[in-house]
Amino acid sequence: MAVKVELLEEGPFVSMTSWGVLSRQEAGWAHETVRELVAGGDATAVLVDARVTEVTSTPSYSAEIVENFVFALERKLPIAFLPPNAWTEAHYETVWKQMPELNVEVAVFDEVAAALDWLQTAATARRAEAKKKAAL
After folding, report:
1. pLDDT (tens digit, 9 = 90+) per residue, 68-77?
2. Averaged pLDDT score across all residues of the chain
3. Which residues contact 75 (CB under 8 A, 6 or more apart)?
């Protein structure tokens, strides 16, 4: 299988890492596994590391995979995305242009450490916002 899903020690985050050629079945399994961890309260943010995933698809297929992942989450969460290194700027731009208006909080990174720092900051801000709303 060209994908791994795991909970990270750095925070209540789930990580989805893919490599090589990612099939629709593998992507679907990963999306469902991440959804279950989020729904169960085990994770409050998501790290998606696809840097070594091969680009064997069109931008339309890439957009479909991203869109299906966001829909599988069933709620808005911070998502740190490390796109495939082999994506050209044109492929990347085309993917995001094909995405419908999704209610997502996503940031794009080149390095895992920067992504985890951002997820920590985003998770802290979300907790503070939830406490503020609960106090009202």
Report:
1. 888 888 778 8
2. 87
3. 38
Beta bridge partners of 17: 4, 49
Distances (CA, A) of 22 to 94, 105, 133: 19, 24, 40
Task: Please give the model's pTM, rounded to 2 decimal places.
Answer: 0.88
CA distance 35 to 21: 22
Is 54 in contact with 86 (CB distance < 8 Å)? yes
User: Which distant-in-sequence residues (6+ apart) come within 8 Å of 77 by Cβ?
Assistant: 38, 43, 44, 45, 46, 105
Tokens of 34: 């991440």
**CB-CB neighbours of 69 under 10 Å:** 21
Residue range 73-123, pLDDT digits in tens: 877 889 999 999 999 999 888 888 877 677 778 889 999 999 999 999 988
The amino acid sitting at 41 is G
Element (H, E) at 78: strand 78-82
* Three state DSSP letters for 9-26: CCCCEEEEEEEECCCHHH
CA distance 69 to 121: 22
